[in-house]
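Fill in residues.
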């Protein structure tokens, strides 16, 4: 078993699975009552098949039974038995799942990698970029690591909000905003969504890890 971490927040259950198994090992953890093999045949990359299976194994671990996942035309996942609202995320070596019995929920996990440094200006506004110096003061890490975490948390938080909003054509730089916060190993901050009126705010929780950052939120939004 590779259940890396699980926790509860605002009535939701969240979990991260560290993918150390092969696709074959993961498939052996599942039965034959659901159309896994047919869905797997549509996935060309071995990495995608492994992620697919890891998510289903994690759902089984959380729910005590296997669950079939469907997708809306937008790509948003859902459980076909409608037992929980669902959010899924994956990055290199990990998958994350969030479940809530009634409220929309979002989770995102992102690998710690340098690419974010090159593209930060595409999804962060000037105020967010300028806030880095103050945000990372006192953080227990070198300056490069602090910068990576700070920028990745902005990307990840906006991915989480996008999943919660359920809207199309969202511009991460123009429509979503992370409010100033003080970087810690685990914490929370407020993020705003401005695409629709009135604009809404969300509490986004986060953790940082040498391999990844993870953000999550439950749809308990307030208006500015």
């Amino acid at each position: 078993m590779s259940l890396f971490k699980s926790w509860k927040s605002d009535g939701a259950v969240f979990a991260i699975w560290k993918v150390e198994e092969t696709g074959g090992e993961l498939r052996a953890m599942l039965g034959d009552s659901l159309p896994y093999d047919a869905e797997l045949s549509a996935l060309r990359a071995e990495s995608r098949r492994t992620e697919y299976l890891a998510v289903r194994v994690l759902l089984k671990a959380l729910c005590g039974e296997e669950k079939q996942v469907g997708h809306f035309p937008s790509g948003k996942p859902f459980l076909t038995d409608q037992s929980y609202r669902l959010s899924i995320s994956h990055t290199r070596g990990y998958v994350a799942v969030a479940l809530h019995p009634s409220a929309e929920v979002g989770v995102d996990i992102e690998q710690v990698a340098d690419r974010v440094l090159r593209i930060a200006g595409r999804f962060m506004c000037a105020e967010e970029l300028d806030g880095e110096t103050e945000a990372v003061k006192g953080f227990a890490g070198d300056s490069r690591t602090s910068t990576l975490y700070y920028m990745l948390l902005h990307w990840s938080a906006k991915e989480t909000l996008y999943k919660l909003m359920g809207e199309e054509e969202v511009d991460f730089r123009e429509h979503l905003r992370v409010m100033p916060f003080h970087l810690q190993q685990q914490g929370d901050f407020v993020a705003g969504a401005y695409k629709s009126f009135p604009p809404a705010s969300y509490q986004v929780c986060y953790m940082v890890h040498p391999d990844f950052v993870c953000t999550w939120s439950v749809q308990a939004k307030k208006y500015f």
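Residues 109-223 form one domain.
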